[in-house]
Design brief:
Layout lengths: L1 H5 L12 H6 L7 E5 L5 H8 L3 E6 L2 H14 L4 E4 L12 E7 L5 H14 E12 L3 H4 L13 H7 L3 E15 L3 E14 L5
Parallel strand pairs: 1-2, 1-4, 2-3, 4-5
Antiparallel strand pairs: 5-7, 6-7
Helix pairs in contact: 3-4
């Protein structure tokens, strides 16, 4: 499905970064950044442009090829990994930040990935998440039309046990990200941080 979508002309979700990520980008520590479910690369390329060493992971080789082209067009370097998150090892103490934007995983996989995030972050590392909530089913302006693939704060908070949630809220905002995310959307925004050990 994703190869088909990313094979369409242009960029399905645009070439500009996600608004929430842009708003918190200055709070990300320096160091390697992992963008999961990154698709065509708009967020990874933005962070690379800010000087981060970014790795983009996605299940679509078509999307990653477009991410590499976008990086080349912007004059930045980007690492890409073609992998299914069900099999991808996030590593241990590996990342200064992990970014997940509109990557709607089935509940068992979502829990597995999110529980791995705390250990995969370096001390002081940051996790950034934006996803649609079940209330998005009323808006129909993007995201999967399946309730179980939509994210709720309580479930995500439980998955991220071990991280400090510095920002976590469900809200409705205008989303303008390509032709597939356009209009008022019900979203969950989370910025969480691993303790740096000095607290």
């Amino acid at each position: 499905m994703w190869d088909q979508r990313f094979s369409e002309p242009g960029f399905a979700y645009g070439i500009e970064p996600n608004d929430f990520l842009r708003s918190v980008a200055d709070r990300l520590p320096r160091g390697p950044v992992l963008c999961i479910g990154e698709g065509e690369g708009r967020n990874a390329v933005h962070l690379a442009g800010l000087g981060h060493d970014v790795t983009a992971v996605d299940t679509s080789s078509v999307g990653l090829a477009k991410a590499e082209q976008l990086a080349d067009d912007r004059g930045v370097s980007l690492n890409t990994v073609h992998a299914d998150l069900a099999d991808f090892d996030l590593g241990k103490d590996a990342w200064a930040a992990i970014v997940e934007v509109f990557c709607h995983l089935p509940p068992p996989l979502r829990g597995k990935v999110h529980r791995a995030v705390a250990g995969a972050l370096r001390p002081g590392g940051t996790f950034v998440l934006e996803a649609y909530t079940p209330a998005q089913l009323e808006h129909r302006t993007g995201g999967p039309p399946v309730r179980e693939l939509l994210y709720e704060l309580d479930a995500v908070r439980a998955d991220l046990d071990g991280l400090r949630l510095e920002q976590a809220e469900e809200l409705v905002r205008e989303v303008a990200e390509g032709k597939y995310h356009h209009g008022r959307g019900a979203v969950l925004q989370v910025l969480a941080r691993r303790s740096d050990g000095a607290e």
